[in-house]
Write a structure and sequence with these properties.
The chain is of the alpha+beta class and about 70 residues long. It has a single domain, classed as Alpha-Beta Plaits (2-Layer Sandwich), CATH 3.30.70.20. Helix content is about 20%, strand content about 20%. The protein has two helices and four strands; from the N terminus they run E-H-E-E-H-E. It has a two-stranded antiparallel sheet. The protein has a two-stranded antiparallel ribbon with strand order 2-3. The longest helix has 8 residues. The protein is globular and about 35 Å long. The protein binds iron/sulfur cluster. The site of iron/sulfur cluster has 14 residues, from helix 1.
């Protein structure tokens, strides 16, 4: 059973790193350029990429960004 990525949208600061690295799995939803709180990443296809690639999408989260997607069983 592969691990499933999950985004905690309360922590997401809309940096789009996960989406740019792994667009097969993550997407932004909500208004771009609008209220920050309505432009969040979500997982639309949890098995759309290998676990290794999803791990990469979790890595480069910049300083101060604690909202990495998590992997759950
Ligand atoms: S890397 Fe984290 S903060 Fe950036 S868009 Fe994805 S979930 Fe949100």
């Amino acid at each position: 059973m592969p691990r499933i990525p999950v985004v905690d949208q309360d922590e997401c600061i809309s940096c789009e790193v996960c989406v740019s690295i792994c667009p097969e799995v993550f997407r932004m939803e909500g208004e771009e350029g609008g209220d920050h709180h309505h432009h969040k990443s979500f997982v639309y296809n949890p098995t759309g990429a290998s676990e290794e690639k999803i791990e990469q999408a979790r890595q480069p989260v910049s300083t101060g960004n604690k909202a990495k997607p998590v992997l759950r069983k």
